[in-house]
Amino acid sequence: MSGVNDILASAESDFVMFTTQVCPYCNRAKNFLNAKELSFEEHDLSETPDLRIEVVTMTGHRTVPAIWDVRGDEPAFVGGSDDLMEYL
Q1: Number of H helices, E strands in the chain
Q2: What sign does the CA torsion over 24, 61, 20, 14 have?
């Protein structure tokens, strides 16, 4: 299993989003990025509890989605769905 930093470093999209299976805010963020024609990679934390712990430890962000902008030289943590809408 890859860690968060490995996932971010290898991303070939505009954003990386950590989600869960039943998450209306995750769907909202995905729809928003699609409407903006921005690509994203999704990783389901329901299936990877260790990864969820790592996301929380790195960011202090306990809810999903947890979204990173990986378009620049260094990944930038954006936050959740509302944060994404303000960010863009």
Answers
A1: 4, 4
A2: positive
Residue 35 corresponds to which tokens in the numbers above? 């409407």
Residue 79: exposed, middle, or buried by beta-carbon count in 10 A (0-12, 13-18, 19+)? middle
pLDDT in tens, 68-85: 999 999 999 999 999 999
The H or E element containing residue 31 is helix 24-35
CA distance 66 to 82: 11
| 44: containing domain | 4-87
CATH of the domain at 12: 3.40.30.10
What is the tally of structural domains in the chain? Answer: 1
Residue identified by tokens 């930093």 is 5
